[in-house]
Amino acid sequence: QVHLVESGGGLVQAGGSLRLSCAASGRTFSRYAMGWFRQAPGKERRFVAAINTYGDKKDYADSAKGRFTISRDNTRNTGYLQMNSLKPEDTAIYFCAASDSSMIPAENDYWGQGTQVTVSS
Hints:
By secondary structure, the protein is mainly beta.
């Protein structure tokens, strides 16, 4: 089992940047693909970005392309989401997830508790 803890959220003005971190403990982090998802108030949780175990394959939602960068450091058991040019519509709770069976984690994989990102206009 993998335990995930997100950090790095907060309040930022539009156009600003944040870097989210996802610290993993438990089983070997490098065996798991990792993804970031977000859930805005009153909306369903949606995919943002994913990265494979080696970090050489990445996938992004259209809303994240060109602004967000997913990465990982397996030596630190940590994944990251660098978010630039933030917009008010990026406001959401951001979750990281890990999967040993798919590059994009599913609901029945491992999930963190989330970190709040608020972008003011």
